[in-house]
Inverse folding.
């Protein structure tokens, strides 16, 4: 390699036009997925205090947000539900007329070209806030699987384009695949939350989804943050069970895992830029400590640079507005 003065890397940094010309990693609205929280009622828009810019919305208001996302070039939304009532088995999550099922139908009727991805998990719908059926104080893995299948089928029947199991139960991908295939939905892809870590960065989401566990935590089924090799095993297991796409969640503390999944699989890799990652940048920006937009764009670029094909982020619309501007 040539050395100074023959080598002058600053030549390629001199102007914005030159920097853009040689840029290795780019992020566009087409790379992003917008999470949305749907709640019962009409004309409802409840701001989430811990997530500035994020609201719980009724279906009619959700349509407004989704229409804006589509206009901005964001190709997909990810739906979470806040039900009217909860019980021990999360039955409102797989009810034909549940809030998510209503939102799916409305979205596919009004914005058919928008991809609708649905979160498949019981935590938002159970009275205890855990992701499955309880046996005492433990989550019963095998008893939970049929309920997850019912939820995925109810989403597919309502018109969902992709189902995304986030529960971290063993065997959930094969259970969903068999249920979908056996009910005439073999064409519906599964986006598996394959490497979902038991993270401290989920707190604001639990405010938004009203899904904080009533006791204990989720470390018996979500992954230990210290384990990267285990993440690869989880990804491979989901692929073997029939996952079409895989996900790492959260994103920023696990860029190494995203990179390993990208290099060790040929499947589409998604990353979830989660609520706490979003909220801490927003909080620092509100205090004037950092340039929030610049920081958020740097974060999203780092996730793409690590190897994520697509990013789920609450910042999707703000990012796209800035790109359009």
């Amino acid at each position: 390699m040539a050395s100074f003065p023959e080598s002058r890397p600053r030549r390629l940094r001199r102007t914005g036009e030159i920097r853009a010309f040689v840029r290795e990693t780019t992020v566009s609205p087409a790379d992003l997925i917008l999470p949305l929280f749907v709640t019962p009622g009409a004309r409802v828009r409840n701001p989430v205090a811990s997530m500035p810019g994020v609201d719980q919305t009724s279906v009619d208001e959700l349509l407004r947000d989704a229409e804006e996302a589509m206009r901005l070039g964001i190709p997909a939304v990810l739906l979470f539900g806040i039900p009217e009532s909860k019980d021990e088995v999360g039955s409102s999550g797989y009810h034909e007329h549940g809030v998510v099922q209503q939102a799916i139908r409305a979205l596919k009727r009004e914005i058919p070209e928008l991809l609708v991805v649905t979160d498949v998990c019981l935590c938002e719908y159970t009275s205890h806030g855990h992701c499955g059926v309880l046996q005492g104080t433990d989550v019963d893995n095998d008893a939970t699987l049929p309920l997850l299948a019912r939820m995925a089928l109810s989403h597919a029947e309502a018109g969902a384009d992709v189902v995304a199991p986030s529960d971290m139960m063993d065997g959930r991908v094969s259970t969903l695949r068999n249920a979908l295939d056996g009910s005439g939905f073999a064409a519906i892809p599964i986006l598996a939350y394959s490497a979902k870590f038991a993270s401290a960065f989920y707190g604001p989401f639990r405010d938004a989804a009203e899904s904080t566990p009533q006791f204990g935590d989720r470390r018996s089924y979500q992954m230990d943050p210290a384990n990267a090799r285990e993440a690869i095993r989880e990804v491979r297991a989901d692929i073997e069970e029939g996952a079409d796409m895989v996900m790492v969640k959260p994103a920023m503390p696990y860029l190494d895992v995203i990179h390993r999944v990208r290099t060790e699989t040929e499947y589409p890799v998604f990353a979830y830029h989660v609520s706490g990652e979003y909220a801490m940048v927003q909080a620092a920006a509100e205090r004037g400590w950092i340039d929030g937009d610049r920081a958020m764009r740097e974060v999203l670029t780092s996730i793409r640079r690590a190897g994520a094909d697509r990013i789920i982020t609450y910042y999707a619309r703000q990012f796209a507005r800035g790109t359009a501007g």
